Amino acid sequence: MKSYDFKATEKKWQNKWDESGVFYAQQDFTKPKFYCLVEFPYPSGQGLHVGHPRSYTMLDIIARKKRFEGYNVLYPMGWDAFGLPTENYAIKNHIHPEIVTKNNIANFKKQLKSLGFSFDWSREINTTDPSYYKWTQWIFLKLFEQGLAYKKEMAVNWCTSCKCVLANEEVVNGGCERCGSEVVRKVKSQWMLKITQYAQRLIDDLDDLDYIERVKLQQKNWIGRSTGAEVDFTSTTGDKITVFTTRPDTLFGATYMVMSPEHPLIDKWEKNIKNFDEVCEYRQESARKSDFERTEINKEKTGVCLDGVCAINPVNNKEIPIFISDYVLVSYGTGAIMAVPGHDTRDFEFAKKFDLPIIEVVKGGDIEKEAFTDCETGIMVNSGFLDGLSVEDAKEKITQFLEKHEKGHPKVNYKLRDWVFSRQRYWGEPIPIVHCEKCGYVPLPEESLPLELPMVDSYEPTENGESPLAKITDWINTTCPKCGAPAKRETDTMPQWAGSSWYFLRYCDPHNDTELASKQALEYWSPIDWYNGGMEHTTLHLLYSRFWHKFLYDIGVVPTCEPYAKRTSHGMILGENGEKMSKSRGNVVNPDDIVNEFGADTMRLYEMFIGDFEKAAPWNTSSIKGCRRFIDRIWGLLDIAVAGKSYSKELESEMHRTIKKVSSDIDSLKSNTAIATMMSLVNKIYEVGRINHAELKTLMILLNPFAPHITEEMWEIMDFGGVITSQKWPTFDEQKCKDESIEIAVQINGKVKSKINVATDIESENAISLAKEDEKIAKEIEGKQIIKELYVKGRLVNIVVK
RNA sequence: GCGGAUAUGGUGGAAUUGGCAGACACGCUAGAUUUAGGAUCUAGUGCGAAAGCAUGCAGGUUCAAGUCCUGUUAUCCGCACCA
After folding, report:
1. Strand, helix or coil at A442?
2. What would the pLDDT profile of A742-784 be if each residue is shown by its tens digit?
3. Which nt is closest to the CA of A418, judged by C1'?
4. What is the crossing angle of helices A671-688 and A693-703, to 10°?
5. Phi and psi at residue A737, in whole multiples of 5°?
6. Which end of chain A is more exposed for a tag (fewer CB within 10 A), N or C?
């Protein structure tokens, strides 16, 4: 047999698959279904990264195996194509983002096709297509209708030189990424989505889902539920200052209060605060810092004491000073805290720095040295009617007291914040809202969707921080859908997260122009049986899409309350030097080069063999050779394939073990050991010197999900009948997996001293006495006292001697 | 800082979940074959001369620890307008 021409063969089968549509999901809703999903890519200008094929190949393997097992499989692909890099590229090179997107998609698609994925290309979607974002806008209208979309003043990053809003990522060390100028926080009115209303359900419903544990944990921590109380203090100006605390039990230990520099009461107190200039200066300073910098625990605590206004502690009517400090965030809780330096680490440091009194109210630690934060063991002291109680009981009693005196109430708080949904950008879905002077914010009627992005020549940001759409006067000026008076369109666009929060629904029925997807299609395909994606999407995309899905469930659009039944996550592929691949590090590997030099099957095998799918792994081009050799050795089997029965009993049982191992390894994402097992099998076949047709057929099917091209070709050459993709997944016989005898280790005091051969099903006593008969062991135990003897089935004998 | 994870030969990684550490590959060494090899095949390959020693580091539990417990160090991912 001549050597394997991967280029011609791979092209041949890719064309055949394209023409036949063999991987299209069937419209037959009576068959068992399997919906297998990977995160759709952002079609960047750099083209496909070698990281993309890692998860696409893994799920392709699962999809292909499921087809062999008789499922109607949906394995779709699409483009998450709105976004900042495209817009920036367009601005820089004066090419319209739509053109940029079109070119990038064409390139991505070509690259994906060259890898032989079994995607259903008839269901390809693109978030920037008006027929798609029509439904993104429709969902927004529903959210608005239900009161879940609202406007709010929010701080944004503002570049003082470019005069535009920056993404956090565009802010580098407090400066603008592009021009290096100072970036400040500026308040702007933004569209917000009330994800916090779903916080509890987003936590509770995780219990019934098959997500990997670290994803669940990270989501729970991100939502950050904490229970405590809101307590109302009164200021000496007579205003109510509400604080949230998880430790209401320590209320008697509150010796001062800290408010976020942005707290609205501070402006109200302008006349009362004698050092208002100093306060303003501090506010400006903290406006320059990110939340992240502000809450860093190791940094020196800063703050300003308000001169002229104090707070009154509701339990003992004591006056305490009020500080502003940047470690208190306006976005969490009420934007103000009661400080209990005796029992909170940050408050303790702050009190030390500003020389504030520290009162012990829970006994058990040494508050001279550090804050005592333990809630389990402490006993209340210096706390009036709480004295002598445990922390738990004190929490309950103080909360009752506060409620009775209308000074507070129990409260559940979440770290999760509402979703800032506005972007002052061009390349996003227009928000379908009109602002009418008389009627306020008025939604566009559903029939008028999609509200298309106007085609313009310039998408540069405006001077005043408005979206580039604000400059297109004939687009902005419209009439109010409600009263008909002249009105203005919303000029902000949606974030990229919008399109990706429901795309998986569209795949079920991608060409429907009357619904986002038909009821019937959604009933059949929901929920997604297996969704794989990066850990970096755990807290944003994954949570946002669960939120939207729950909302759509509540209004009766989708049949399940959760979108994804199972979620797994792949590790990153790093550069050869073990660092993240990036242009600036110069360690980027282009998948096209690999496919050209080694072929798609080798590339797929290599990425699946590189290591544990869930862990990061460094790329190593020289290791690919091993997979290339394996492909060649597979091809070589054509020369030693013979008709008739199996030629080796040993090979036969190895065959059965391989079926078992490969099947279970695919299901548990252990592609690396599945491949290793097949490599061992092939080594064995060459050792035996021949393989019969039945065995070769089995091996071809096992390998097909990994290396689909060569196995199709060999199936055809061997004339095994039909095409390989219409075969059934092989089964194994448990009895035939076992060998008759096995080698076990014999240990003395836990150290291996010898090995013996025993029957697989040997009894414990027999194994031990056989072990003692072994020459080396007999010598070891001679004259010694045997304390313990044990046999671990199929593994070892351990004899403990003294 | 907060939250999540990871650490095993020269390299990527295996290890039935507490039971023979290093499967399967890469690389390397030697040999065969070839006009030639960055091709193929064969043999060897954790360290150590050996007794032995080895799973980031320091302790602990156990007949037995890469795996469990305590502490510690380093690296990676996310932190809400990158996707």
Report:
1. strand
2. 888 888 888 888 888 888 888 888 888 888 888 788 887 777 8
3. B80
4. 160
5. -75, -20
6. C
What average pLDDT does this structure show over A629-646?
A: 91
* Nearest DNA or RNA nucleotide to A331 (CA to C1'): B80
**pLDDT for position A297:** 47
C-alpha atoms less than 13 angstroms from C-alpha of A789 in its C-beta half-sphere: 14
Distance A621 CA to B26 C1' (A): 10
Residue carrying structure tokens 């670290």:
A214
CA distance A621 to A74: 33
CA of A176 to C1' of B37 (A): 54
On whether the CB atoms of residues A499 and A421 are closer than 8 A, the answer is no
Phi–psi pair at A741, nearest 5 degrees: -130, 155
Whether this prediction's pTM lies above 0.90 is answered by yes
Strand ranges for A389-496 from DSSP E: 408-414, 419-420, 433-436, 440-443, 477-479, 486-489
Q: List the single protein residue with the shortest CA to C1' distance from B4.
A: A218
> Torsion-angle region of residue A427: left (phi > 0), alpha (psi -120 to 50) or beta?
beta
- A428 CA – B6 C1', rounded, Å: 37
Nearest protein residue to the C1' atom of B81, measured from CA: A167
Which residue is the nearest neighbor of B24, CA to C1'?
A: A676
Rounded mean pLDDT, A430-437: 95
Q: What is the pLDDT of residue A596?
A: 93
Nucleotide nearest to A794 (CA to C1'): B19
For the segment A486-501, what is each residue's pLDDT rounded down to a tens digit?
Answer: 999 999 999 999 999 9
For residue A638, give the nearest of A729, A721, A713, A722 by alpha carbon.
Answer: A713
Nucleotide nearest to A195 (CA to C1'): B80
Distance A799 CA to B71 C1' (A): 33
Average pLDDT over residues A137-147: 97
Mean of pLDDT values over A784-793: 85
pLDDT, tens digit (0-9, with 9 covering 90-100), for A11-38: 999 999 999 999 999 989 999 999 999 9
What is the per-residue pLDDT across A560-580, written as a single tens digit (0 to 9) for each?
A: 999 999 999 999 898 887 788
> Does residue A166 surpass a pLDDT of 90?
no
Nearest-nucleotide field for A213 (CA, C1'): B4
The closest alpha carbon to A6, from A706, A591, A718, A599, belongs to A599
Please report, rounded to whole angstroms, the spatial distance between the CA atom of protein residue A362 and the C1' atom of nucleotide B61: 35
Dihedral of the alpha carbons of A278, A281, A286, A289, in degrees to the nearest 10: -150
The pLDDT assigned to A295 comes to: 58
State which residue has its Cα closest to the C1' atom of B63.
A800
DSSP label at residue A684 = H
- Could you report the predicted ipTM of this complex, rounded to two decimals? 0.93
| Per-residue model confidence as pLDDT tens digits over A221-274 | 999 998 899 999 999 999 999 999 999 999 999 999 999 888 889 889 988 999
Nucleotide nearest to A154 (CA to C1'): B81
Residue A670 CA, nucleotide B17 C1', distance (Å): 15
Q: Which residue is nearest to nucleotide B18 (CA to C1')?
A: A792
**Cis peptide preceding A450, ω within 30 of 0:** yes
- CB of A542 within 8 A of CB of A495? no
Dihedral, CA of residue A615, residue A618, residue A622 and residue A623, to nearest 10: -10
